[in-house]
Write a structure and sequence with these properties.
- By secondary structure, this protein is an alpha+beta fold.
- The chain contains ten helices and ten strands.
- The strands form two sheets. Strands 4, 5, 6, 7, 8 and 10 form a six-stranded mixed beta sheet that branches. Strands 2-1-3-9 form a four-stranded antiparallel beta sheet.
- The longest helix is centred in the first third of the chain and has 16 residues.
Length: 293
């Protein structure tokens, strides 16, 4: 008589393990770095060898990929596309305790605009270009092609997840994915960061009162035109920003008209085109030096 086959079950929620690992491997095969999340949408903590980054393997956390230890460490930086790593014993143990699959948007060349409530979704539909959307528990993920700095709470109910961040995978979504627009990049430029990076307004020369040859309306029109010139640049953005700063300073750099608010507007326009705060400051300083200000 044939003996019945004995199935030895590995401890842990096997159906969930199979489903999560299948999703992870499918994403990884398309070039999307993935990692498991625990209950509560949080990553697994570092192993004892990597606790508090004592391993020294990823001190600046600039790139994705597993660290040298076999564990699922360093949160978003552990995300990988390597199936051998995803199915290794250490990772399998993590998948057995996982509650969801996450991915590193920046590692896949993507940016996720996380809309956390109905008000945020209403705002996005009027302020942002349409792209692929994925329903979440309370809102939606809008996914764009392109990467940028991640930042939470860029406005009420809106987070940006791209470089050095992870997002929960909730399905392929619907709609055609479009290129990351300037409107999203501009969200990461906060007033506080501009205040730190922008130079102070030019000092009013001794004896100067109001601009003797320009009206406030002329100044406002000039700043608006400068913003437009920068935002409409399709190439040579660095050079365009510098030339625009030079033009503004050559007209109003000596009369005391420019304020921090004007400078921040110019910096915001430049950073919406991908310029860093450092590039903006350097361009502004170089323009002042050229003009002897």
């Amino acid at each position: 008589m044939t003996q019945p086959t004995v199935i030895r079950r590995v401890p842990g929620p096997q159906p969930q393990l199979a489903e999560l690992l299948r999703s992870a491997l499918t994403l990884a095969a398309t070039g999307v770095p993935v990692l498991p999340l625990r209950q509560g949408k949080v990553p697994f903590g570092n192993c004892h060898q990597c606790a508090h980054n004592v391993c020294g393997g990823r001190p600046n956390m600039k790139s994705a990929g597993p660290c040298r230890c076999p564990g699922v460490c360093h949160a978003w930086a552990a995300a990988t596309t390597d199936p051998a790593v995803l199915t290794s014993p250490a990772w399998t143990a993590a998948w057995q305790r996982a509650a969801a699959v996450a991915y590193h948007p920046g590692g896949a060349g993507l940016t996720v605009v996380d809309l956390d409530d109905a008000d945020a979704m209403v705002w996005a539909r009027t302020a942002l270009p349409a792209t692929r959307t994925v329903p979440t528990t309370r809102g939606e993920h809008w996914i764009y092609r392109g990467t940028m700095a991640s930042r939470n709470a860029v406005r009420p109910g809106v987070d940006i997840k791209s470089a050095m961040a992870y997002a929960r995978y909730l399905g392929p979504g619907t709609g055609t994915m479009t290129a990351l627009p300037d409107a999203v990049r501009a969200l990461a430029v906060t007033e506080s960061s501009l205040a730190r990076s922008a130079p102070q307004a030019l000092a009013v020369p001794a004896g100067a009162r109001k601009c003797p040859h320009r009206s406030p309306a002329f100044l406002e029109r000039g700043i608006a035109m400068a913003e437009q010139r920068i935002t409409e640049a399709s190439s040579a953005v660095h050079a365009t920003v510098y030339r625009t700063f030079l033009a503004v300073l050559s007209t109003h750099g000596r009369c005391g008209c420019l304020t921090d608010a004007h400078v921040c507007r110019l910096f915001t326009a430049a950073q919406s085109k991908g310029e860093t705060a450092r590039h903006c400051t350097d361009a502004w300083t170089n323009a002042r030096t050229t003009l002897g200000l």
